[in-house]
Automatic annotation (TrEMBL):
Native source organism of the sequence: Rhizobium phaseoli
Entry keywords, A to Z: Oxidoreductase
EC number(s) reported in the record: 1.1.1.47
Protein's name in the database: Glucose 1-dehydrogenase
Family: Belongs to the short-chain dehydrogenases/reductases (SDR) family.
UniProt cross-references to Pfam families, sorted A to Z: adh_short_C2
Entry keyword annotation includes Transit peptide: no
Superkingdom field: Bacteria
Top-level EC class as recorded in UniProt: oxidoreductase
Keyword Oxidoreductase: yes
Molecular function as annotated in GO: glucose 1-dehydrogenase [NAD(P)+] activity
Length: 260
């Protein structure tokens, strides 16, 4: 199936590692021009850019802290300079934050998660939507999580940020729809990436994780990347203002498979 993404101008935040890298690769494989945003590990974005350009594609790497409005504005200007604008924003960058119950957590660390995951996602959407509304086309795909609906003790900032991104996306989708622009979310479950390495590398942690996943396996980054590319393409031109879960059934209340 040709997704029609050839030459589309795509920005993937946090595109140098984990899910972001898999998403960036999937867009590059579809012939899109891919800008990789990163904050740390420049080597990883360098490697990806070399890989994409060696395969005949166009790619950029842009260092920016997405929670900094000035840095985000400069990043979008750099994409304007290179490609004259943007067609698809994948807001992927995010952090889990430190484990800690609400009454123990450091309020500054709590706020940092909101700054990156919620405010950073908004700041990038703000810049992208300005351009997309003016050109009357575009897609903003925000990465949330099963934790936009599943509570998670010790991670109240993370769950609040992801639920926040979900509702923000629905509101932005209402605003942007009359202008030919879609805004939606993809919500991964447990995917094998560095963010949760401590869990899937630990035998007991992994066993416990599997009890939470009806399909009985951890997700691979490609499970999410394939859907992300599809959702950003015209194959999904009738989907906006909603979240697509890619979670092996984690949100299907696996503990209710028996009893109740
Ligand atoms: C988190 C992971 C976690 C997964 C399932 C994701 O949003 O980033 O650390 O394993 O949700 O709980």
């Amino acid at each position: 199936m040709d997704l029609g993404l050839t030459n589309k101008r795509v920005l993937v935040t946090g595109g140098n590692s984990g899910l972001g890298a898999a998403i960036a690769k999937a867009f590059a494989a579809e012939g899109a021009r891919v800008a990789i945003n990163y904050l740390i590990n420049p080597k990883q974005s360098d490697t990806l850019v070399k890989e994409f350009t060696a395969a005949g594609g166009e790619a950029l790497q842009l260092m920016a802290d997405i929670s900094d409005p000035g840095a985000v504005e400069a990043m979008f200007s750099a994409i304007d300079d290179a490609w004259g604008g943007i067609d698809i924003l994948v807001n992927n960058a995010g952090i889990d934050g430190e484990y800690g119950f609400g009454w123990e957590a450091d309020p500054d660390a709590w706020g940092k998660v909101i700054d990156v995951n919620l405010k950073g996602t908004y700041l990038c959407a703000h810049q992208a939507l300005k351009r997309m509304v003016a050109q009357r086309s575009g897609v903003v795909l925000n990465t949330t999580s099963v934790h936009e609906v599943i509570a998670w003790a010790g991670y109240s900032a993370y769950t609040a940020s992801k639920a926040g991104v979900s509702m923000m996306s629905k509101s932005l989708a209402q605003e942007a729809a009359p202008h030919g622009v879609r805004v939606l979310c993809v919500a991964p479950g447990a995917i094998r990436t560095p963010i949760n390495q401590a869990v899937w590398q630990d035998a007991e942690g992994y066993r416990d994780l599997l009890t939470k996943i009806p399909l009985g396996r951890i997700g691979e980054p490609e499970d999410v990347a394939n859907i992300a590319v599809m959702l950003a393409s015209d194959a999904a031109s009738y989907i906006t203002g909603t979240t697509i879960f890619v979670d092996g059934g984690m949100t299907d209340y696996p503990s209710f498979a028996h009893g109740g």
